[in-house]
Write a structure and sequence with these properties.
single chain, Beta-Lactamase, alpha+beta, five-stranded antiparallel beta sheet, 4 domains, about 20% strand, six-stranded antiparallel beta sheet
Length: about 525
């Protein structure tokens, strides 16, 4: 009853702990997911606006730039400086490269940039062909920080590209992607900006991730879905092994996406606190229940303690196994009566166990242990009566294919049927035992002078009954049996006779199976070599 009371309290606490926690987690996930999605979309819109603004600014500059300045680098530099001061969106610089990729003008000037070549830059090559656009985020060779280049071709009136105008933005600029780097969600959450086509973290609150490759397929399942086009919220494990709640939103102008993320440990703090209180109060309730029920039932269950003490002394061998006294007709009395019935049941079970120790559990035939006893008895009887003992060692032919192809269940069924057929040939004084997987031993006693003929007839009968097809899985399956026969007048060792029959069985196998073979009759007697 104490355990029952404790179980009730603990079960209630566990139910509240898991189910209330589960429902609270679901509610928190729903609310926080909506917030995360709203934050991700807001940041994505801001990033998209900043990118679009910069791209439009670069387009207006390209359309207004006089092409004759391409051949006048100093005037071109002054023109770039004036536009930069009017609208300084490209803080690391505006620059112009000729068709060969040589930077002919830049502002603000960075040592080593003017005169350098960007011909091997894929973004420059793309712009040179007239395909203007936003380039790949990269670590600026001259700015020495993560940057995003944008390039557009400067064409003459015939549409021939004369140069390329490039605007470079620092990724961590406060008015550009600064919120991605510095923005916080809760205490430890933040944002990621990812370029799926480049497989890069463009920006991140964690500086170790900026311009690093995104995790390979299978590391972060939600990230894998986002790379394939999923937009929404879910729970995932990040590259550092932390479980987090993340929301994904598109940046339409580039095909990038923003991830707003927060560790679930932080998101579920309220749930964790509620579960801790459940555990605390549940523990106090368990103590209270134990004390109250223990005091009440100690008085009520005193007869049970007495009966338990007697039972313990019986199990220790201090007292014989006898029925316990029934003090009163209540629950304790019923329990005592049940114990007494259990003693009776144990006696019955013990007899069954003794049978199991001497019989094969599958076929019910004698096993090797009891076979040895029966053979000793048969040898003693043969010595006393002057008769002979014959041992037939039977090994089934064709059993392994049935066992392998149909399975052990049907193999066992075949063995049971073989045992049944052989049992029909056994006299009351004879012995049939199963000594191995598909091996049986038939001990025949009280054989006279024509013992050889009798044994051969019995062996032939065994071959006949086993050769009849056995129905398994609605199909007939044939078995055979190879039999080794050894005879003794009881003066030899039973083990030697069994071994001789076993060897004779192998002779029958070599002679073509489904036949019998006789062992040599000269077996050493007891005390002889």
């Amino acid at each position: 009853m104490i355990l029952f009371g404790v179980l009730l309290v603990v079960s209630g606490a566990l139910a509240r702990f898991f189910f209330l926690g589960k429902f609270l987690r679901e509610d928190v996930i729903e609310v926080v997911s909506a917030q995360q999605i709203a934050l991700a979309k807001a940041v994505a819109r801001d990033v998209d606006h900043q990118l679009t603004t910069r791209w439009n600014t670069l387009n207006r500059l390209g359309e207004s730039l006089p092409l004759e300045m391409v051949k006048q680098p100093e005037r071109l530099t002054d023109w770039l400086a004036e536009r930069h001061r009017i609208n300084p969106v490209f803080l690391p610089g505006l620059l112009v490269a000729d068709r060969q990729g040589i930077i002919i003008a830049d502002f603000p000037p960075i040592p080593g940039r003017r005169g350098a070549s960007i011909a091997d830059n894929p973004d420059f090559a793309r712009a040179l062909t007239g395909n203007a656009g936003i380039g790949k985020p990269q670590f600026g060779a001259f700015a020495k920080k993560p940057v995003l280049p944008m390039g557009m071709a400067l064409k003459d009136k015939d549409g021939v590209v004369q140069a390329v105008l490039v605007g470079v933005s620092a990724l961590d600029t406060p008015g550009f992607l600064g919120p991605i780097f510095t923005g916080k969600i809760g205490h430890t959450g933040g944002y990621l900006l990812i370029s799926p086509q480049d497989g890069l973290f463009v920006a991140a609150g964690d500086p170790d991730l900026v311009l690093k490759k995104t995790p390979p397929l299978g590391v972060n399942l939600l990230h894998d879905r986002a790379m394939q086009g999923f937009r929404g919220a879910g729970i995932t494990i990040n590259v550092k092994g932390t479980e987090e709640l993340a929301a994904v939103a598109d940046v339409p102008s580039t095909g990038w996406f923003v991830v707003a993320r927060m560790p679930t440990a932080e998101a579920f703090e309220a749930v964790t606190r509620a579960q801790e209180r459940i555990v605390k109060y549940g523990f106090l309730a368990v103590i209270f229940v134990c004390v109250v029920i223990g005091l009440v039932f100690r008085v009520l269950l005193r007869p049970l303690f007495s009966a338990a003490d007697l039972a313990e002394r019986m199990t220790q061998g201090e007292l014989p196994l006898t029925p316990l006294p029934v003090v009163r007709d209540d629950e304790v009395g019923h329990l005592t009566g049940a114990f007494n019935r259990l003693l009776e049941k144990l006696s019955t079970t013990q007899a069954a166990l003794e049978r199991m120790a001497h019989h094969d559990p599958l076929t019910g035939l004698l096993n090797r242990n009891l076979l040895n006893d029966r053979m000793l008895q048969a040898f003693a009887r043969a010595k006393r009566n002057g008769t002979k003992v014959a041992v037939l060692f039977l090994d089934l032919d064709g059993f392994k294919p049935i066992n392998d192809e149909l399975g052990h269940e049907y193999g066992d069924a075949a063995l049971v049927e073989v045992a049944r057929r052989l049992s029909g040939l056994v006299r009351q004084s004879d012995t049939l035992a199963r000594v191995g997987g598909d091996e049986f031993v038939f001990v025949i006693v009280d054989l006279g002078g024509n013992g050889d003929e009798v044994v051969k007839k019995i062996a032939a009968k065994c071959i006949e009954v086993i050769s009849k097809p056995i129905e398994l899985q609605n199909a007939a399956h044939s078995l055979g049996v190879s039999i080794g026969i050894a005879m003794s007048d009881g003066l030899s060792d039973p083990g030697q006779l069994l071994k001789a029959a076993d060897l004779a069985m192998y002779v029958a196998k070599k002679n073509g199976r489904s036949c019998y073979a006789m062992a040599p009759e000269s077996l050493p007697s007891e005390g002889k070599a």
